[in-house]
Amino acid sequence: MTMENSYALITGASSGIGLEIAKDLAGRGYNLILTARRTELLESISKEISEANNVHVDLISKDLSNYDAPREIFEFCEYKNYKVDILINNAGYGIKTSFHETSIDDEEAFIRVLGTSVIMLTKLFIPKMLEHDGGKIMIVSSVASFAPPSAIQPLYGPIKTFMNRFSDGININYKRKGITSTAVCPGFTTTGFHTASGVQEEMDRVPRFMVFPASRVAKEGVDAMFAGKSIFIPTKTYRAIVFLTTNLPQFLLRFISNMLAPGRYDRN
Ligand SMILES: NC(=O)c1ccc[n+]([C@@H]2O[C@H](COP(=O)([O-])OP(=O)(O)OC[C@H]3O[C@@H](n4cnc5c(N)ncnc54)[C@H](OP(=O)(O)O)[C@@H]3O)[C@@H](O)[C@H]2O)c1
């Protein structure tokens, strides 16, 4: 990959893990296209990153719950003649309201932001990557993809599991053509996620040894993406937790989960 005119497109770049991935990639010399909904925040972030790293940073504010958003982002990149070598699908949130109180529109918007828009962006950018002889894709998934279902957000874990499988499928299909896809599965990370998702109180009760800074998750994730890993869990702590999650009997796992992360799992 040549760095000149080489761009990384990052969704959910206005805060948390996406913002840290943006800073990390700019530090490695990549030009950036940042997207999220909060325009003013994106503007100040773009200016700050561009000045600190001497790279070109552009932005496009879009709400990924809108069906047309991925295509509009793609067309923006085409219009500007940006060569997108790296696609980071990171935007996400948790639904605050209990499942029985949400509308089907709420659930569909959620699936669109965390699922359908990821598929659409990947589908739109892969042909360009094939033309350029390669590319890197990252999907920010979650350790929730390996965990028992959450009582608070029944769809969150399943959509992340779906994304792991999707990423794996892309990897298998395109690796030989120079395109890899990495599902990065963080555990509890200090970001705006828990406030935005209405679970900050539960997050505050999570033991400190289970909470990691977004900058560390971003760096380990970006390294794994460049190494072409298919599924990657940042930090040894979470690799151990996922090992247990996938090997312990379910009843024991739910019991331990309730003690360590109350509120995340069914307490009945
Ligand atoms: N924090 C954790 O503990 C944790 C753990 C595992 C996985 N994750 C995953 O990590 C990813 C990033 O989350 P984070 O923790 O960094 O949370 P965050 O700080 O709240 O960042 C979420 C980002 O997604 C964007 N976003 C949300 N809804 C959007 C929409 N409808 N359209 C476009 N952009 C939207 C937000 O920007 P705007 O509000 O400006 O649109 C923001 O930039 C998510 O996929 C999340 O599921 C987080």
Structure description:
The protein has a single domain (6-260), classed as NAD(P)-binding Rossmann-like Domain (Rossmann fold). The protein is 49% helix and 16% strand. The protein is built from ten helices and nine strands. The chain has helices at residues 16-27, 39-53, 69-79, 104-131, 156-174, 193-196, 200-204, 214-226, 236-247, 250-260, and strands spanning 6-11, 31-36, 57-61, 83-89, 135-140, 179-184, 189-190, 212-213, 231-232. The chain has a seven-stranded parallel β-sheet with strand order 3-2-1-4-5-6-9, sandwiched between helices. It starts with 5 loop residues before the first strand and ends in an 8-residue tail after the last helix. NADP nicotinamide-adenine-dinucleotide phosphate binds at residues 12-18, 36-38, 63-65, 90-93, 113, 140, 142, 186, 188-189, 191-193, 196.
Main sheet properties: 7 strands, parallel
CATH topology, anyone? Answer: Rossmann fold
Looking at this structure, what is the CATH superfamily? NAD(P)-binding Rossmann-like Domain
Q: What is the H/E string?
A: EHEHEHEHEHEEHHEHEHH
Helical fraction? 40-55%
* Average pLDDT figure: 92
Oligomer: single chain
Uncertain runs with pLDDT below 50, 5 residues or more? 264-268
Bound molecules: NADP nicotinamide-adenine-dinucleotide phosphate
> What is the structural class?
alpha/beta
Task: Report the end-to-end length measured between terminal Cα atoms.
Answer: 52 Å
User: Any idea how many domains?
Assistant: 1
Record field, number of beta strands: 9
The CATH class designation is: Alpha Beta
